[in-house]
Amino acid sequence: MNDKSALLGQLKIDRNAAIVEPSPRWPWLVAAAVIALIVIAYLVLRPSSTLQVKAVPALTLGGASGGGSVLDASGYIVAQRQATVSSKVTGKVQELLVEEGQTVKEGQVLARLDDSNARAALQLARAQLDAARAGLSQANAQSKDASRQAVRNKELVTKGFVGQSVYDTAQSNADAQAAGVEAAQGNVAVAQRNISVYQQQLDDTVVRAPFAGVITVKNAQQGEMISPLSAGGAGTRTGIGTLVDMDSLEIEVDVNENFIGRVQPGQPVTGKLNAYPEWEIPCKVIAVIPTADRSKATVKVRIGINNKDPRILPDMGVRVSFLNDAASKPAEAPKGVWVPADAVQVSGDTGVLFVIKNEKLERRAVKLGGKSSAGQQVLSGVTAGDSVAVGDLSKFSDGAKVVIAE
């Protein structure tokens, strides 16, 4: 019983005992959070050892033209040297050796025709020549024999062994045989000329390029009949293709006769192909054709192309601008390069800028020229293509590492 009383006494609440309050821990948590924010802000906002800059290339200065166009016109690219290549004889194409777009040299074989008839005719002519030469040999022999007989008869007449009539007969025969020799010589000459003719006919079965150029059109195929342009005929072609000398390309334009006074031979011209409208082609007036087209009231003008280019093709459309004399003399190109004005620390006619080399700044002392909306002209110290740094110049220093801003 006493033990239970003791236990109950331990469970009794003492209302007069002092209250023990918990220790305040939250201020420490707040302080730790503030410190963490300060550290993060420092790490984020602290100055970096690598500068971020903008890179701008130094640009070459361009010259300005001294004049402008006095007349604009439209025309076409034409070839002054162009031919439809054909054979000299009518025949069947046995071999065709070219394709469209192929470049050929002067004298190059383009096609061969069936030459069996020409070869047979040539062989016959050679046989006739052999026969003519044999006839000439026989005539020479007979002439010599007749001449000897006439000489013997003359001696016999002198000695009184034969009458004068015998000698006269022998002499007439000698003269006839001599004439026979001349005829045989003529036959040989004719046979030789026949061989030349038939040899030429055989050569004409081979079609060759009359000049160097490009095959732009192929008209015939193997097995087809072709003929000279003047012959033609049903079922025959009048040429194997079109050959163009690309070095003879020029521009032809029709100028309204009211403005032809603005065009003179030798006048500078700028041409722009419809296919390449941004490409300016330097040209020059070759000639003003001295006749007008009554129906169109225009005068044809030939314009030469100063620099040949494979992009220029026959029959291309082109727009031309006839320039005045001043336009043909471009102003002297300014010296130096253009750089952004805010990339230079200016001090009179000199300055300092920074060029980016291997991700580092390189300090350059430069000589300055004029200033315009295009930027600052730099006469020396920087070359075209150098990457110039643009940014806060106060933070730039020689050798500083940089990052190029996008």
Automatic annotation (TrEMBL):
GO cellular component terms given for this protein: efflux pump complex
Transmembrane segments: 26-45
Domain CzcB-like C-terminal circularly permuted SH3-like: 337-390
Domain named Multidrug resistance protein MdtA-like barrel-sandwich hybrid: residues: 81-227
SUPFAM superfamilies found in the cross-reference section: HlyD-like secretion proteins
Keywords: Membrane, Transmembrane, Transmembrane helix
Keyword check for Transmembrane: yes
Single GO molecular function: efflux transmembrane transporter activity
InterPro entries (UniProt xref): Beta-barrel_RND_2, CzcB_C, MdtA-like_BSH, MdtA-like_HH, RND_pump_MFP
Lineage: superkingdom: Bacteria
Domain CusB-like beta-barrel: 251-322
Domain Multidrug resistance protein MdtA-like alpha-helical hairpin residue range list: 128-195
NCBIfam families: RND_mfp (TIGR01730)
Protein family membership: Belongs to the membrane fusion protein (MFP) (TC 8.A.1) family.
Record protein name field: Efflux RND transporter periplasmic adaptor subunit
